[in-house]
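Re: folding output
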Amino acid sequence: MDVIYQRGRASAAEVMEGLPDPPSYSAVRALLRVLEAKGHVRHKQDGPRYVFYPTVSRDRARQSALKQVVGTFFEDSTEQAVATLLDMSAKEMSDAELERLAELIAQAKKEGR
């Protein structure tokens, strides 16, 4: 999906080109068929090849995936998920990134009341 989102559209061969350690061509095709069956991509025929397009925006897909992760691993607790992310990466975050997070929390407090 990352390759398709980056390019906007991609054939199976282009997906393979965009992967650092790609599986076989047939494995990529199989994965694209699964993604299409699940409604994540659709295809159009372009000569002898299929070109795949995402069905939802990257932001919407991110939100959906993150909601699933938070529900599955953090018992629907945004607080637990954010705390885990901070535990994992706070040392690598710049002061500007930490300040931006503080601003987002302040904004969420305002909007939540």
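--- second protein (sequence, then structure) ---
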Amino acid sequence: MRLLLNWFLSGLSLVIVAHLVPGFYLSGFRAALIAALVIGLINATLGLFLKFITFPITVITLGLFWFVINALMLELASRLVPGFEVRGFFAAFIGAIVLSLVNMLLRALVAPQERESD
């Protein structure tokens, strides 16, 4: 159930980002759900590999280089998913930042962290 909720929230995040970031387009919520699935698969495979090999650069840039990698993953996903388009690296970079923030905000609103009981 949590996996479906995360998938739905990721799709919703993409819709919100498409309304906020110029150059970031979705044809509908169905495309957003498919794009969220593809982005998740890309990040779990290629993205994980890229983050591993670029870790020294990430440390030097205090983690900001991961936004570059996330932007590249968004561009790749836009090439694979019909109805999802990212026009240019700048739109992908800004989209990656806004997507991270919106995802974090939605997850905090929908599923606040449970407190550990002693």
